[in-house]
TrEMBL record:
Gene3D superfamilies for the chain: Kinesin motor domain
GO molecular function: ATP binding; microtubule binding; microtubule motor activity
Pfam families, A to Z: Kinesin
Coiled-coil blocks: 441-496
Organism: Parasponia andersonii (Sponia andersonii)
Alphabetic keyword roster: ATP-binding, Coiled coil, Microtubule, Motor protein, Nucleotide-binding
Database matches in PANTHER family: KINESIN-LIKE PROTEIN KIN-14S (PTHR47972:SF2), KINESIN-LIKE PROTEIN KLP-3 (PTHR47972)
Residue stretches of biased makeup (Polar residues): 624-647
Protein name as catalogued: Kinesin-like protein
Family designation: Belongs to the TRAFAC class myosin-kinesin ATPase superfamily. Kinesin family. KIN-14 subfamily.
GO biological process: microtubule-based movement
Span list, region Disordered: 593-647
GO CC entries: microtubule
Length: 748
């Protein structure tokens, strides 16, 4: 510098610009130094702040929080998706998946751009960029991009498909412009199998998984709607004219095609073969838009019959897999002749589908399902109780912008339809069976009710009868008591009569007469405790059993009789009978015993005459009358032996005795008149007293006892009596005043 200054001083004019430059550079250096200092300061600050542990901790905390929030977000968004799906299911909306195919070779060659854009931040949404750069947003249940393969598509479809195994009807259909990939999505290719094949494969897979709980049978049908005609694709119609198939409404309200082939399938290979053969038969043709354009709507129906092995519940559900013919602009695809006609039919049926969708979306009362075969066929799948999924297929090409917007608008409307929640489909045959069972149950219930009523009325009748029986028993007891008393009185009277008549001159004859009289009394009055044999059970009373045979009372044995009558009488008594047995039989009936009490017959009369039973005698002569002073045959003014002998001499005892009996007839008829209750109970028309008057012989001692001696009476008393107001009522109704005058003990 000093040299320079010296040079400058020596040659000032030349050195000045150089100096100026140096000064400038020096200034620049100074500035740079300052800047450097500043930057150095800054650098110092940054490096010194990092080691600060607080900052590091905060950073760590923030990063942890960020991770947590990310996890939460992912969880929340999956939950939201799930909830959304549930809401969709509850509302019964038709789900819509959008699939966009890639640009094909022709489109790329023609320099077509993609008009469809996707925003990664917005799930299941796409934007269509119009020629004026305006964007239209569409949202669907899922959006598949061109790079999404068949597997990805089926992964989303699977949950709906498998619900057919749970008994739900399912319908999946592909809609869109021609050449957008409907057939590719539904059928696929051998390398890229579509929804149809994968669905059936999944159904077999799931049914195997559930083999322990459920048993499934799968059937496949395939048909097409071509030019508004239904054709069975599983029937090879090359050799014979196609059978005309029509849609019929079944009793359950579902649409059926009678005569449609239903092939049972046992594995995926069977299905694949069927699908291939069906596709071969399907009507296809070449158009400018698609070399292999489908000219018909193809419908594949999988019928699943399920049986729950645990509770036996059966289901029958259908899965419809529909590949619609492509919507096309006739002018644009340049068709004519047969292709034009096909296109018109296709457009007409798709337009009918549009009308149905509009009616369903706006919830109008009338939905025009029958305007086309396609909508008629899918009636229960579009607005019914099934799960419906629609694939809207679109092309990304700018050339197809108009059709793409049309298809997406249509799909958005479909998505807005609320068809109501899906219902499980029970097997109708099974339902019919259950209906029949319910009817049978109702019928059985009615019968049971009738039987119950009958039982109730029988119980009432039984109770009434029991009441009648009790009344009769009481009456019988009264009668027995009464008769016992009468017998006592009679015995006394006869003893008195005997005493009065016991003044004959001869002691021997007196004694024999006395004995005879006593015997008469004893034998005319049978033991007061009659053997049960003497009491016949009352007919009509079911609880009276026939009595066991009882032995003869001892005094009735021939030995006793012998002692009572004297040995000389015995040969006469037994003369009429050949054996002892026969003699015994003579004494068995009470009335026959009268023969034994008769006084000795006159010598002229034969033994057979003496033993001849006079049946009426026992009745007429032995009945005592307690409260009357009517004389018995012994109680006459004539001496006893005279009276007796004269009576027996007459030989018409019955006639005479009937006269004696006459005055008492009224009383007897009163006593033994048919009791209305008993007659009613037994259904008898004959008075009981006429049939059986055995109670007349009851001994007073026993008769006065409260315990009934008749075994039938015991049986009646043992029977449990159930008291009820109804019974009391019936008692009141049946209670009739006794024909017998009520007697006090003193009166007796
Ligand atoms: N997602 C895709 N990825 C690859 N190729 C596709 C895709 N979608 C469609 N294609 C191809 O596009 C062509 C037309 O597809 P497809 O025949 O399935 O259309 P389409 O909608 O059924 O037509 P059309 O209504 O005329 O029957 C086919 O060659 C098919 O392989």
């Amino acid at each position: 510098m000093s040299n320079g200054t010296q040079d400058a001083s020596t040659d000032q004019g030349q050195t000045l610009p150089i100096l100026q430059k140096v000064i400038d550079l020096s200034t620049k250096i100074q500035d740079l130094k300052k800047e450097h200092a500043i930057l150095s300061d800054q650098v110092k600050l940054t490096t010194s702040s990092f080691p600060d542990p607080e900052v590091l901790n905060t950073l760590q905390l923030l990063s942890t929080e960020h991770e947590l929030l990310m996890k939460k977000y992912i969880k929340e968004s999956s939950e939201r998706k799930q909830l959304y799906n549930e809401v969709i299911e509850l509302k019964g909306n038709i789900r819509v998946f959008c699939r966009c195919r890639p640009l094909n070779q022709n489109e790329i060659a023609n320099g077509c751009n993609s008009v469809i854009e996707y925003d990664s931040s917005l799930d299941n949404e796409l934007q269509v960029v119009s020629s004026d750069s305006s964007r239209k947003h569409f949202k669907f249940d899922h959006v598949f991009r061109p790079e999404d393969n068949q597997e990805a598509v089926f992964a989303e479809t699977k949950p709906i498909v498998t619900s057919v195994l749970d008994g739900f009807n399912v319908c999946i259909f592909a809609y869109g412009q021609t050449g957008t990939g409907k057939t590719f999505t539904m059928e696929g290719t051998t390398e890229n199998r579509g929804v149809n094949y994968r669905t059936v494969e999944e159904l077999f897979h799931k049914s195997e998984e559930r083999a322990g709980i459920m048993r499934y049978e799968l059937f496949v049908s395939m048909l097409e709607v071509y030019n508004e005609k239904i054709r069975d694709l599983l029937v090879d119609g090359s050799n014979q004219p196609a059978k005309k198939l029509e849609i019929k409404q079944a009793a359950e309200g579902t649409q059926e095609v009678p005569g449609l082939v239903e092939a049972r399938v046992f594995g995926t290979e069977d299905v694949w073969e069927l699908l291939k053969s069906g596709s071969r038969v399907r009507s296809v043709g070449s158009t400018s838009a698609n070399e292999m354009s489908s000219r018909s709507h193809c419908l594949l129906r999988v019928t699943v019959k399920g049986e729950n092995l645990i509770n036996g519940q059966r289901t029958k559900s259908h899965l419809w897999l529909v590949d619609l013919a492509g919507s096309e602009r006739v002018g644009r695809i340049e068709v004519e002749g047969e292709r034009l006609k096909e296109s018109q039919f296709i457009n007409k049926s798709l337009s009918a589908l549009g009308d149905v969708i509009s009616a369903l979306a706006s919830k109008t009362a009338h939905v025009p399902y029958r305007n086309s075969k396609l909508t008629h066929m899918l009636q229960s799948s579009l607005g019914g109780d099934c799960k419906t999924l629609m694939f809207v297929q679109v092309s990304p090409s700018s050339l197809d912008l108009g059709e793409t917007l049309c298809s997406l608008n249509f799909a958005s409307r479909v998505r807005g339809i609320e068809s109501g929640p899906a219902r499980k489909q029970a097997d109708h045959a099974e339902l019919f069976k259950y209906k029949q069972m319910a009817e049978k149950y109702k019928h059985d219930e009615k019968e049971t009710k009738k039987l119950q009523d009958t039982v109730q009325s029988l119980q009432l009748r039984l109770a009434a009868r029991e009441h009648i029986c009790r009344n009769l028993q009481e009456k019988v007891r009264d009668l027995e008591n009464q008769l016992g008393e009468e017998r006592k009185t009679r015995l006394k009277q006869e003893t008195r009569a005997f005493t009065a008549a016991s003044a004959p001159p001869s002691a021997l004859s007196s004694l024999s007469l006395k004995q005879a009289a006593q015997k008469t009394v004893m034998e005319k009055k049978p033991p007061l405790a009659p053997s049960s044999k003497l009491r016949l059970p009352l007919r009509g009373l079911t609880n009276l059993l026939p009595p066991p045979p009882s032995p003869l009372p001892k005094q009735w044995e021939s030995g006793s009789i012998a002692s009572a009558y004297g040995k000389e009488n015995i040969p006469k008594m037994t003369a009429g009978s050949t054996t002892t047995k026969n003699t015994r039989s003579l004494f068995q009936p009470r009335r026959i015993s009268i023969a034994a009490v008769r006084p000795r017959p006159p010598p002229s009369s034969t033994a057979s005459q003496a033993l001849k039973p006079r049946r009426r005698v026992s009745i007429a002569t032995l009945r005592p009358e307690s409260n009357s002073h009517m004389s018995t045959p012994l109680h006459t003014s004539a001496p006893l032996h005279t009276s007796a002998s004269s009576r027996f001499k007459n030989g018409s005892v019955a006639g005479r005795l009937s006269m004696v009996r006459d005055p008492r007839k009224a009383r007897y008829s009163r006593l033994f008149s048919p009791l209305p209750e008993l007659m009613k109970a037994t259904g008898e028309t004959t008075p009981i007293a006429v049939r059986s008057s055995k109670f007349m012989g009851s001994p007073p001692a026993i008769a006065s006892s409260n315990l009934p001696r008749h075994h039938g009476v015991i049986a009646l008393q043992r029977k449990t009596v159930v008291w009820s107001p109804l019974k009391l009522r019936s008692m009141k109704v049946n209670r009739r005043p006794s024909l017998l005058p009520s007697r006090s003990s003193t009166e007796i």
